[in-house]
Design a protein that fits this description.
- By secondary structure, the chain is mainly beta.
- Helix content is 0%, strand content 55%.
- The chain has a 5-stranded mixed barrel.
- The two termini are 25 Å apart.
- 13% of the residues are buried.
């Protein structure tokens, strides 16, 4: 089974080896069929590399690394 990959924008880089990534998704209302955007934040692990807020990155699902981290940064776009 392939691992999920999401693309998002870095929101916070305050802790070592962890970034917070905001992913924008589009949903459709069940009754009215109107589409709307919403953002979801994911905590992602990274080994090396310089990341700044507003960078676009690709994150991939992985095994649990800590209490909140289940994603890791794959590459910077």
């Amino acid at each position: 089974m392939p691992k999920r990959q999401l693309t998002g924008k870095i929101v916070s880089v305050k802790t070592p080896n962890m970034v917070v990534v905001s992913v924008e998704k589009i949903k459709e209302h069940q009754k009215y069929k109107k589409r709307f955007k919403f953002h979801q934040k994911y905590k992602a692990h990274y080994e090396e590399g310089e990341y700044q807020p507003e960078d676009m990155v690709v994150i991939e699902e992985t095994r649990p690394i800590s209490k909140d981290k289940r994603w890791k940064v794959i590459k910077k776009i």
